Every structure is written in C-alpha cells, then in structure tokens.
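YceI family protein structure dump, as promised
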Amino acid sequence: METINFEIVSSNSSVEWTGRKVTGAHNGTIGIKNGNFIFNDGKIKGGNVVIDTTSIKILDVTDPATNTQFAGHLASDDFFSIEKFPTATLDILSVKEISGTTYHLEGNLTIKDITHLVGFEAQVNNDNNTLSLGGKLIIDRTKYDIKFRSGNFFKDLGDTLIYNDFELDFNITAEAVFTGESKN
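structure tokens r here:
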C-alpha cells in the first residue's frame, strides 16, 4: 500500500466564485493559500485546502472605484469578515469513487469559524506525480452567518435580494512530495 502526499501548487490552482442576485450575478476569484491531498493505492483518500479570503477579487465590476467599494463590502462583517477570518478551510473526511476519475468528496467547510459538512463531485487525475482536481462546490452562505440581503432573514428586498447559494468552481494542481522533500 503506497501512500503519497500531494501538496497544492497555489500558483497553478484557481478558484472562481459566482454569486447571484435577482438582477444578475457577480463573479471573481479567490486564492488558495496551501493544502494537500492524500493518495493511497492510486486513489484519493483525504486532504485539506486552505483558502486565502484576503485574496478575493471581483472580475465583473470594471469601474475601479465601484470595484474597490464592492471588495471592501465583501471583506466586511456583512460577508467574509476577512480581518477576523483571513482563511477558510475544507477538510476532506470521506471519499467515494463514482468512476475511475470521478469522486464524491465530503468534508468540513469552515468559513468565519463556522463549520458545516459539504459534499461535491470532483474529477481527479494523477499523471506523473502531478495531481489535478476540478469540480464545483455550491455553498449556502447563510449557514456561515453571511445573511446580507438574504430572503431568509430580510423581507421586502425586491430586486436587491441576493440568493443564498454561491458557487466555487475549482481547478487545483498538486505535486507529489516524497520523504525528505518539501515543496513550498
């Protein structure tokens, strides 16, 4: 039984977010600080991903002043409270193989020091000690005390309502680290 640790290569990984509201959507990126995946006998068995919430960017708002204002609002206590919580984490607890490269992952997602179990499908490929993992995670923001303009908590929002679910589309690259090696 061979166990291999794959460390995430942040510079070759991406997470794109999409948040929707009645009148449209916003999208952007957020960075991965670090993390790893454990493979045993060629199959993913677990892992951990640390998201750098301070790196959140908005891509669809092109006016610099509006973009800066929006980014400040996402950083505030209405959303991610990044001064208090500069990271969010996903700890993978269980993995079920659906097919050769498709897995259902479940784990604890912690945002703003609040943890809930999440599940999602991911495509996982291991090629020459380089791992690629891609998929989509849909998150109900209200479970993490992000209630701003949620119809669950505020009435008569009309077209200012922001939907509770947001999406994270991720493409992660990780490289095998063998005993005595460390890649940072």
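The chain has a mean pLDDT of 85.
lmk if u need the other ones
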